[in-house]
User: Fold Phosphogluconate dehydratase from Serpentinimonas maccroryi.
Amino acid sequence: MMKPTSPPQLHPVVAQVTQRVVERSRSTRATYIQTTAASKRPQRYRAGMGCANVAHAFAAMPAVDKLVLHQERQPNVGIITAYNDMLSAHQPYEGYPAQLRAWAREMGATAQVAGGVPAMCDGVTQGYEGMELSLFSRDVIALGTAVGLTHNVYDGALLLGICDKIVPGLLIGALQFGHLPMLFVPAGPMSSGLSNDEKAKVRQQYAQGLVDRTTLLAAEEAAYHGPGTCTFYGTANSNQMLLEIMGLQLPGSSFVHPGTELRQALSRHAMQRVLELARSESPQTLADIVSEKTVVNGIIGLLATGGSTNHTIHLVAMARAAGILINWDDFDELSDVIPLLTRIYPNGKADVNHFHAAGGMGFLIDQLLGAGLLHEDVQTVMGSGLHRCTLEPWLDSGQLAWRKAASQSADEQVLRPVQRPFTPDGGLKLLKGNLGRSVVKYSAVAPEHRRVRAPALVLDSQQALLDLFKDKQLERDFVAVLRFQGPQANGMPELHKLTPVLGSLLDRGFKVALVTDGRMSGASGKVPAAIHLSPEALLDGPIAKVRDGDMVLFDCEAGLLQVEVEATEWSARSAQRADLSSSEHGFGRELFAFFRRQAGLPECGGSALFGNH
Ligand SMILES: O=C(O)[C@H](O)[C@@H](O)[C@H](O)[C@H](O)COP(=O)(O)O
Ligand code: SF4
Assistant:
């Protein structure tokens, strides 16, 4: 794969933002690099360990593996798996560990499951108590990953995870072992069923009592119908995009369906590649790959594809785990110059299968690189230079081969070249004003809905809004101000159950918007929503001073969120309180009190692991 002879001039804003991130991260980054360097060993990690430790580590391994392990020459690969039957995206992982061990053996090495981590399906917990554990489950996954890898008998690792908080959690935990080479191993998307757009329409009809529950269930089951990741461009598929554009996963591997020959060949190649790296004198380790430039490339990928707003929290935490400090100013400034090149639901009607067929990640990365909108000089699991991630895998007489990705999009309704973007900017904005800082993804919001000026409707739960809708109290213009949904209040749940209700009011011509210190799903889109508002209501954020009827101006494109209350009255108001006791008990929430108490600001990653540093 030839490196581009003369890479184009890097866009000045990309260069400026990157330099600002480097400056901001200088001290935390130096600590991270020092700690990682101190963990490197010249020999196999198990060499020189105590005999009892080694005997424990390999007691259950078959004799053939023990022979290899005793020689202390060949690499031993640790597998962290997020398999469970609950997530359609992770169910295909069931047989991966046995297969990966067999491939390692075939390749003269060994592999072991170092540990399993939990994985929550936000589709199942959406709107219910479990969603209040969702954000923090990311940090639990990070802790679980560290527990697995800390056995320290591994010379490389494979990370099996796809969905929302699982990839962020795996990366946060794995970065503690950044001295090792690692790859993520995807399992691929579900085949296309009922389109996401059709599914959303039936939901809105049900919310208005126009269809019955049987019809709704049939539509949902036609959309979510088999193994594989849901096909909308939510947080899970934003993770897949990120892993490829950050060079952490084999190029073109994200959106190959489970159970196919090519999928199998790619999983085998992941084992082959991690062994190549572990056997090399100077491998690309995880810490070599996750640099400031790689993280900025990740932000750019999110903006160019209308990726999940959850990554204005998760990507911040992932970067922080490598000592890299990014914030919403970085997202906002890059969004002004990064063109939107894809229209995948909720930013359009297509799904990830259409995107992949139209040219997929290879085309996207090639286009952005060619326009000087990505850093080429980064490390990847394929070697040095992001150009290596513009390849796509194929089977050449049954053998895995790599070729340059398509140079033309096969469908410009889904995927466009830089010369003809859907919009010249990334459609993500930092909102400022007298309520604090929040973000809005307006790439999925119709232009006529991007500026709303309407009276506040103040609520303390999403159920309260759903009840008002049911009682037909919402047939008017309003800005729903939904408070006490922040990380320290109730774990910052996604409030995606509001989408069909608010979407149906928008479709009937009412001017509505949502302002909240909570989150939305990556699958949310059409409703203008100022989310992650900080400081949160529980910490006396200004959102707790808003009263019913206050006029609220929400202007996506101007980046303004302002309550129009006279300044002296506004400063004289005290923050209201709410009874949060229902979020402190039941369904595991007692166990997460520590995470709520220690959670950092959403703009700092919303994590108890790093606070606000
Ligand atoms: O951030 C995300 O992408 C969401 O958390 C997603 O993973 C979740 O499952 C949605 O709830 C699915 O959308 P529906 O609830 O509309 O099916
Ligand atoms: S994409 Fe969301 S709904 Fe689908 S399996 Fe993953 S977590 Fe569950």
Observations:
- The mean pLDDT is 96.
- The domain at 428-580 is CATH 3.50.30.80 (Glucose Oxidase; domain 1).
